[in-house]
Amino acid sequence: MDGSDATAVAQARAGDHEAFRLLVERHSRAVFRLAFRITGNEHDADDVVQETFLRAYRQLGRFEDRSTFATWLHRIAANCATDVLRERQRRDARGPQRAFSSALGRDGWHDDTDESEMTEFPSVNDPGPERLALGSEMRERVERAMTRLSPLERAAFVLRHFEGRSIAEIGQLLGLRDNAVKHSIFRAVKKVRGALEPVLRPTR
User: Mean pLDDT, consecutive 10-residue segments, the chain of 204 residues?
Assistant: First the structure.
């Protein structure tokens, strides 16, 4: 753990509120960025930040120095953000959320699935004048597609493709086995690719 974080954590555990405030100031921006990417909503991201630091403060005595404070904090934030998405889905008139566990083993998922299938996206290399407009349409399609992902799919997708986390790191943050992480990313990428296909299909 970073030396300055370790000192602040030790002081906060001893009841130093200023030390915990320092940790909040040091990490709140990164936590907000992660929360916003997962929830896609600034208001929800603000709520996630507040809940994350509230939980962190209450659970500070259980923090283990084997991991960094930032990793531990991001684990709390990722879980808070997925909780927000689950609650959002429960309020959504589109129907009940499907349990993540019921999806395991579907869509032809196997442990030997080529990892490139869940990590690579077609790139837009057209240097012409329409590239900017195409990029904007792609972003809109990705955003729409992400609203149709399950909470765990979205969290895993964000952590992999926006945060650049490894499979093992994502598993640690979300409390999932590696195979479950890969499955979530695989399903998310499949859905996002499907949304992008109309704009990436080559014209003749």
Answer: 81 94 96 94 95 96 86 95 90 50 36 45 43 63 86 94 93 94 94 80 56
Residue 202, sorted as left (phi over 0), alpha (psi -120 to 50) or beta, turns out to be: beta
Alpha carbons 1 and 199: distance in angstroms, whole number: 45
So where are the chain's domains? 3-91, 103-200
Class of the domain covering 103-200: mainly alpha
Indicate the pTM of the whole model.
0.72
Cα-trace Rg, the chain = 19
Instruction: Pick one of 1.10.1740.10, 3.40.50.150, 2.30.330.10, 3.40.50.2020 as the CATH number of 3-91.
Output: 1.10.1740.10
